[in-house]
Amino acid sequence: MARILAIDYGTKRTGLAVTDELQIIASGLTTVDTPKLLLFLKDYCEKENVATIVVGEPKQMNNEASESEVHIQAFLKKLSETIPHIPVERVDERFTSKIAFQSMITGGLKKKQRANKALIDEISATIILQTYLDGKK
């Protein structure tokens, strides 16, 4: 089987998570500066067997798209041009940053470590990926 890659897209930096090859466990991969994201993804997908890319879909409480969806749509267009052979799916990402932050507290991370926004983005991507995996069961 192939891995599933998840993206928590941000205008400054983007969190990434990936499954194992059996698509059982979601793990944080890294955080990438968003201007370098497409190059990173292209390189990663050439080295690893990726079956699907899952991108977080930010929504407001009333279920309408959030303001950042405009940026994500532009990214998705470039992604489909850069890596056209890998399908992209979307997952509701409401509350993932709050859940990520809470998991850092629960995990015992110190206040300075919890201020690391890159780590929050990576954990958020992992939550997006786990949500996707749970939905497939």
TrEMBL record:
<comment type="similarity">
    <text>Belongs to the YqgF HJR family.</text>
</comment>
<comment type="function">
    <text>Could be a nuclease involved in processing of the 5'-end of pre-16S rRNA.</text>
</comment>
<keyword id="KW-0690">Ribosome biogenesis</keyword>
<dbReference type="InterPro" id="IPR006641">
    <property type="entry name" value="YqgF/RNaseH-like_dom"/>
</dbReference>
<dbReference type="Pfam" id="PF03652">
    <property type="entry name" value="RuvX"/>
</dbReference>
<keyword id="KW-0963">Cytoplasm</keyword>
<dbReference type="InterPro" id="IPR037027">
    <property type="entry name" value="YqgF/RNaseH-like_dom_sf"/>
</dbReference>
<feature type="domain" description="YqgF/RNase H-like">
    <location>
        <begin position="2"/>
        <end position="100"/>
    </location>
</feature>
<keyword id="KW-0540">Nuclease</keyword>
<dbReference type="InterPro" id="IPR005227">
    <property type="entry name" value="YqgF"/>
</dbReference>
<keyword id="KW-0378">Hydrolase</keyword>
<protein>
    <recommendedName>
        <fullName>Putative pre-16S rRNA nuclease</fullName>
        <ecNumber>3.1.-.-</ecNumber>
    </recommendedName>
</protein>
<dbReference type="InterPro" id="IPR012337">
    <property type="entry name" value="RNaseH-like_sf"/>
</dbReference>
